[in-house]
Amino acid sequence: MDTLLLARLQFATTTSIHFLFVVVTLGLVTLLVGLQTTAVLTGKPVYWRLTRFWGQLYVINYVLGIATGIVMEFQFGLNWSGLSRYVGNVFGAPLAIETLVAFFLESTFLGMWIFGWHRLRKGVHLALLWGVALTAYASAFWIMVANSWLQNPVGYELRDGVAHLTDFTALLTNPSLGMAFGHVVFAALLVGGMLMAAVSAWHLIRRTPDYGLFRTSLRIGLVTAALSITMVQGFGFAQFAPVGQVQPTKFGGGPEADALVAEWTTRFGPGDYTPPVLASVGLGFMILIGFTLGALWLLLPLLWRDWAIRLRFPLWLILLALPLPFVAVILGWIAREVGRQPWVAYGLLPTDQAVSGVAPGVMLASLIGFSLLLGTLAVANWVLLARHAARGAADPALGRSPTQPPADTRPVPVFA
């Protein structure tokens, strides 16, 4: 097999799996901030219990997601050494900032938050969670800065065949950045809201004792998801304008695209500079899912009534719709990344010049090994999430007091 194809398949596989961890992490931490802030301000036990329950699921996803992120970092040097040599002086700057933010600040804040229950004042403990959320958003921002530069290289100059950063501000004002970052953020909130609503719906379908607790989280998740899908659609369609300006060949043709193809043919030789059909197919299905999830607004007033919740049918709709936002974010990634082909850095570095000179057999072994590793982590993550979600919110391990008796010796409180 071709080394380039194997390298692309490996990157697509690992990135897709890692992205699923990222959107859950970013979506849940935002909801956690709202829950714990409400708990501190109101003092109501229901919000403390919800914070502990959803915080435990968040921590599970975060810890296993870290390992998938490490694999991503290694791939740039192992499989894409041409990219590192050619544009590393530019592309590496936002990645280095993201690493410092995510692996140092965010992890430090999260560790202190996990072990700070019953040891820190409520305000300090809440501030740590805010720190986790803000650094998570900062991490996502710098990743999108780096990705947007690959979509539309700006603020650089070529010296001795190597790109050098000349204008850091240009990275932050890249036309390919703003709307894409907003799209990713609200996609993560959509995933987090749907996950919260679906888990809550499952407990309400089973008629667990904590009816009031999961009714509250159902409504919080559903409102979050409904608001987010509207913003996702807005930021998504708004990207078509800058894409037409900075990537004329991505989803169409025209005089600008023809001129670019002629220029590239002169510089890089004859070739197929049209993005694969897969990009447009992914975009079409993503838009279809987006419009389908827009129906959440119709369920929102219905599920505000207890009699509608007891019907169970609307709850089953939410539960069955849970995979849709996950599929949509992968399709969105395909549309953005495959639509850039055949370039690693659009119009600057062809993909076949960025791949490492590795034998196909070695690349195939790497593809199989990393796919099995990340696939195992993904399965383990969802098994653990399902298991801990099924246990309910009676006595999560997160935030449990050292003097608290075991859960099976205490009555389960019911919030009506």
TrEMBL record:
It comes from the Bacteria. The chain crosses the membrane at residues 20-41, 53-71, 91-115, 127-150, 180-205, 217-241, 277-303, 315-335, 355-384. GO terms for molecular function: electron transfer activity; heme binding; metal ion binding; oxidoreductase activity, acting on diphenols and related substances as donors, oxygen as acceptor. It is a multi-pass membrane protein. InterPro entries: Cyt-d_ubiquinol_oxidase_su_1. Its main location: membrane. Pfam families: Cyt_bd_oxida_I. One of its GO terms (cellular component) is cytochrome complex. Residues 395-416 are annotated as: Disordered. One of its GO terms (biological process) is aerobic electron transport chain. This is Cytochrome d ubiquinol oxidase subunit I. Keywords: Cell membrane, Electron transport, Heme, Iron, Membrane, Metal-binding, Transmembrane, Transmembrane helix, Transport. It is found in: Cell membrane. Belongs to the cytochrome ubiquinol oxidase subunit 1 family. It comes from Micromonospora echinaurantiaca.
